[in-house]
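On clarity, I found the account of how folds are encoded harder to follow than it need be. For illustration, here is how one protein appears when written out as sequence plus structure tokens:

:::
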Amino acid sequence: MERGYIQIYTGNGKGKTTAALGLALRALCAGFKVYIGQFAKGQNYSELKAPEFFKNLTMEQYGEPTFIVDKPSSKDIEGAEKGFKKAYEAVTGGEYDLVILDEINIAILLDLIKVSDVLDMLDKKCIKTEVILTGRYANEALIEKADLVTEMKEIKHYFNKGIKARRGIED
């Protein structure tokens, strides 16, 4: 694989994780080794079954099965710390061609992870590794560091009509 770049998918619109998972599918089908770490997520999403279908995929969650509403709990903090250690190894170690750090922007916003630590990790990333950071409210320093930034903008969403997350589409 050629040199890897840093991508950010952010914004208030739907599709940040979905776009990252789409790129993971493309990379896996090209024979790449992929690591996906999901921060602040512990729910049972359909994509968690993907490693059963792709031997080159490692996928882990670093969150509780409930959303963080006010202040993060001690378990939220522990999960993020554990996840960041694994993410650091995945980004810097050279084992993976693509590393997706799903919702890491939210983990930074909630002070579960320091932006300075993420910047340090990105400075030390393996040259061949492509890194994707997802989540709303991407930090300006990360936006400056990234090679590609896409903002998802909500124009219309069926959730506003009371339609719940659907298995295989949002869940």
The domain at 6-157 is CATH 3.40.50.300 (Rossmann fold). The helical segments are 16-29, 74-92, 104-109, 115-123, 140-145.
